[in-house]
Amino acid sequence: MSRLAKRPIIIPSNIEVKKEGNTLSVKGPLGEIKRDFKDDISIVISGQEITLTPKKVDPFLSALWGTYAAHIKNMMNGVVKGYEKKLVIEGVGFKSALQGKDLIFNLGFSHSIKIEIPSDVKAVIEKNVITISGIDKEKVGAFTAKIKNLKKPEPYKGKGIRYEGEYIRRKTGKKASAGA
Predict the structure, then answer these.
(1) In Å, how far are 139, 152, 174 from 133, measured between CA atoms?
(2) How does strand 113-116 pair with strand 41-46?
(3) String of b and e for 55-72 (b: at least 16 CB within 10 Å)?
(4) Which of 51, 52, 105, 132 has a beta carbon 3.0–4.6 Å from 113's, enabling a disulfide?
């Protein structure tokens, strides 16, 4: 059972929250996010508070209760502050470029890779650092994971795409034979 979802979620003064059917929309200074929720957990907006209560006692609904509370908090945080992730490209000849609504990568393959940037996500490239930002935490995380999976960092030289601040465990290469 979720302890965080038991407490009501306080709505900041600069955010407007509406519920129409099973869709919850959160509007703030950076934009608006809409999300559909299942009917199993009732979402009640009263004044400046949102309260969540499951309609029946069930282990699945207890897990869903806390998940819904986290989603609503992430939506409110996204329209106020936004989310940002940074990727670092390491390797000789590895580069990226922004061309209209597309990111183009040269990652040591025989061809360049072209990825379309989703409409509600922004990408900025500075040398070997790609900054992905947006108001939806899930879309920002999914897009950065998609980019990272193009060329995961390898353990010998660390070449590839990694998150900023991510530690890559290095392996030692072949050792010279001692008795030759």
Answers:
(1) 9, 21, 41
(2) unpaired
(3) eeeeeebeebbbebbebb
(4) 105
Distance separating alpha carbons of residues 33 and 85, to the nearest angstrom: 19
- For residue 40, which of 64, 24, 66, 23 has the smallest C-alpha distance? 64
The answer to whether the CB of 2 falls within 8 A of the CB of 13 is no
Pairing of strands 49-54, 41-46: antiparallel
pLDDT tens track, the chain, 180 positions: 567 778 899 999 999 999 999 999 999 999 999 999 988 888 999 989 999 988 888 888 888 888 999 999 999 999 999 999 999 999 999 999 999 999 999 998 999 999 999 999 999 999 899 999 999 999 999 999 999 999 999 998 889 999 999 898 888 878 755 555
Spatial separation of the C-alpha atoms in residues 10 and 133, rounded to whole Å: 25
- Nearest in space to 133 (alpha carbons), one of 87, 167, 67, 68: 87
Cα–Cα dist 38/64, whole Å: 9
DSSP string covering 127-154? TTEEEEEES-HHHHHHHHHHHHTTSPPP
Element (H, E) at 61: helix 59-80
